[in-house]
Design a protein that fits this description.
Blueprint lengths: L1 H18 L9 H17 L2 H28 L7 H11 L14
Helix pairs in contact: 1-2, 1-3
Length: 107
């Protein structure tokens, strides 16, 4: 059972590393400490089937979120733009340019 806990812990840390763009030294150490404490506590409780099912669900969720984010960035490149930038990009896509809006705040 200890082997499964170790394997699950390593898999969770791998998924956290893949989801995080920062290098390992720049990441928040509290996240790893919380995961470690959770795994140690669950190892003491002895409820192995529930723990295995929960960890499999956590890993599936983390992988799915990572894949969803990658697909969203790939097929919807306007997702991180503001509303005004999105309108301009959409207009350029169909061959139009947005007119320049007067800025009345400077007067």
């Amino acid at each position: 059972m200890v082997a499964y806990h170790t394997h699950a812990y390593r898999n969770v840390l791998r998924e956290v590393a893949k989801a995080n763009a920062k290098p390992r030294s720049a990441r928040n150490k509290d996240i790893a400490l919380n995961f470690r404490a959770f795994f140690v506590e669950s190892g003491r409780s002895g409820d192995a089937p529930t723990f295995q099912r929960d960890m499999q669900n956590v890993l599936t969720f983390m992988r799915s979120q990572r894949e969803y984010k990658a697909l969203l960035e790939r097929y919807n490149p306007l997702i991180d733009l503001t509303g005004e930038e999105r309108i301009e990009a959409t207009a350029r896509r169909v061959g139009l340019n947005m007119p320049k809006m007067p800025d009345f705040q400077d007067k």
